[in-house]
Amino acid sequence: MSSVTATATGVAAPTLRRPSVSSISTGSTASDGPISPAGNGAASAAAAPAATSQPDAASYPGQKRSLAGIALRAFCLGAALMAGVFGAIVLILLPRMWTPTMEADESGGLASMLAPLWRLPFFLAALSTFHFLEFWITARYNTQATSVESFLLTANWPAYAIAHLAAFAECFLRYTVLRRAPSVASVASFLPLPLPSRTAVMLAGLALVAVGQAVRTAAMVQAGRSFNHMIQHKRAASHALVTDGIYAWLRHPSYFGFFWWALGTQLVLGNVVCLLGYTAVLWRFFSVRIRHEEQLLVRFFGDDYVQYRKRVGTKIPFV
């Protein structure tokens, strides 16, 4: 994911042959004698065989760049995004739409119980946006490396899916079944330390989600063909050491973006267990990955990368 470790290793863009327009003679030949009943004096049309367009073999269903697979994933992500945005808006506005005849019961009312669950469709919308942009940015700026896998929907499967399902489950339980249980904030109130309010934590999470997504997307755009989702072990001609722009401020900005984006989603959801779990797992993952990746970068770029590494940090704690 670093701008300097990637190379366009995807299937090369196919060269499609356009059908050639056949040259057909439609004129008539003059005849000095009687017109032949068979030919009626017309010249035979000599039509060259039309060249058929051959699609890239990798674009067929089930292949690496399956057009059907790309279309299906894009449709599902779009539907999930719309469902997430609509669901979040409805749940946020639900208490205001609640009619006076539907009075709150002693537990705070159904509306007040459902309203905090806007976090779940928000998380769905954030995930959909992230995965769509992973594919679209790759397709736009590094076309040759694009494949169905560029959506990253099955990356680190099934651990990735389990982590997100756990986040959904914890948030749902926190605001439904366990809504009366003592919160982390109430327990921590006994500590002699000032703690941020739930609203402040949520706003901080929203900011991290927005900043993390923006940084990762900007890193992919700037790196262009030097960005790849897979670590490259051989230097290609398209490899370039990018040290300007966002890379002048952050080393491995795409990793920075995802790390803080993921933690931000857990702050918005109000998850405690998953926040700790995400932090531990992602820190371990990026720590190992960056260490391995930078060994290759030093081999590719020598002292140039060593000096760059000294100047610029990752902004991921202790990495």
From TrEMBL:
Localization per record: Endoplasmic reticulum membrane; Membrane
Membrane topology: Multi-pass membrane protein
Reactions catalysed according to its record: [protein]-C-terminal S-[(2E,6E)-farnesyl]-L-cysteine + S-adenosyl-L-methionine = [protein]-C-terminal S-[(2E,6E)-farnesyl]-L-cysteine methyl ester + S-adenosyl-L-homocysteine
Class of this enzyme: transferase
UniProt xrefs under InterPro entries: ICMT_MeTrfase, PPMT_MeTrfase
Sequence segments annotated as region (Disordered): 19-41
One BP term from GO: methylation
Enzyme nomenclature, EC number: 2.1.1.100
Any GO molecular function: protein C-terminal S-isoprenylcysteine carboxyl O-methyltransferase activity
Membrane-spanning ranges: 74-98, 118-139, 151-175, 258-283
Keywords: Endoplasmic reticulum, Membrane, Methyltransferase, S-adenosyl-L-methionine, Transferase, Transmembrane, Transmembrane helix
Family: Belongs to the class VI-like SAM-binding methyltransferase superfamily. Isoprenylcysteine carboxyl methyltransferase family.
This protein's name: Protein-S-isoprenylcysteine O-methyltransferase
Species, as recorded: Sporothrix epigloea
